[in-house]
Amino acid sequence: MALLAVNNINVYYGAIHAIKDVSFHVDEGEIVTLIGANGAGKSTTLQTVSGLLRSKTGSITFEDKNISNTAAHKLVTHGLAQVPDGRRIFLQMTVRENLEMGAFTQPAANVERDIETVFEYFPRLKEREKQIAGTLSGGEQQMLAMGRALMSNPKLLMLDEPSMGLAPILVEQIFEIIQNLHKNGTTILLVEQNAQAALSIADRAYVLETGKIIMSGTGEELLKSPEIKKAYLGG
């Protein structure tokens, strides 16, 4: 049974039909990626799953419960966490305070342990523990946004464009961390413009184009696809 199942969703911005009959699923223990050009509908799809937008049709189920109309903040208690594009950390708070904010659904007794776990994934954050988040570099802010989401102990971690605006060496680091999270049991839904990096680590992938899924397969299959190479990999 799928951990997350998205069935036939249609999302509109006013008169604009942004997402058209999109269906996909994520099984427990997978990395699934949605790739596509800027404006293809990737982030809109993720925002619909996380309750920030509503679909006119279809259903979204998580652990076999229909969450189509569940408020976004309540989904965190169900075990679903999103790292939004643009990071959106609390800029005036310290690194530690941001992490503590991410633990609002967790028992107080677990917070210290979970912060230490985040620091194991992101040693840079431990070095910056008392630093004001707004003074961090872009890469460090991305790490903090991911760490804050992990503080809720999610069953599904959704990442929206984690490589955006980062130098290539930092992109490598972020994708290594995603792989480590996956190896340690976190299920991941990844939205990413960097198709090469995303497909290289994904179990399965879906290609979005103008709001529709036009292709799907394993990450390896899509990496080898001539159409994908031509459209997204510069080949």
Provide a compact summary of the structure:
With 235 residues, the protein is of the alpha/beta class. It has helices at residues 42-49, 72-78, 95-102, 108-121, 123-127, 138-150, 168-183, 195-201, 219-224, 226-232; strands spanning 4-13, 16-26, 31-35, 59-62, 65-66, 80-83, 156-160, 187-192, 204-209, 212-218.
Q: What can you see in these coordinates?
A:
This protein has 235 residues and is an alpha/beta fold. The protein has helices at residues 42-49, 72-78, 95-102, 108-121, 123-127, 138-150, 168-183, 195-201, 219-224, 226-232; strands spanning 4-13, 16-26, 31-35, 59-62, 65-66, 80-83, 156-160, 187-192, 204-209, 212-218. Helix 3 packs parallel to helix 6. It is globular and about 45 Å long.
Keywords:
235 residues, four-stranded antiparallel sheet, 10 helices, alpha/beta, globular
Q: Biggest β-sheet, characterized? A: 6 strands, mixed
Tally of strands: 10
Order of helices and strands: EEEHEEHEHHHHEHEHEEHH
Helical amount among residues, as a percent range? 25-40%
Count the DSSP helices: 10
What Rg is obtained from the alpha carbons, in whole angstroms? 17 Å
Given as residue ranges, the uncertain stretches (5+ residues, pLDDT < 50) are none
Please tell me the overall pLDDT. 92
**How would you sum up the global shape?**
globular
Strand order of the largest sheet: 6-7-8-3-9-10
Strand content: 25-35%
Chain-wise SSE layout:
Layout lengths: L3 E10 L2 E11 L4 E5 L6 H8 L9 E4 L2 E2 L5 H7 L1 E4 L11 H8 L5 H14 L1 H5 L10 H13 L5 E5 L7 H16 L3 E6 L2 H7 L2 E6 L2 E7 H6 L1 H7 L3
Parallel strand pairs: 3-8, 3-9, 6-7, 7-8
Antiparallel strand pairs: 1-2, 1-4, 4-5, 9-10
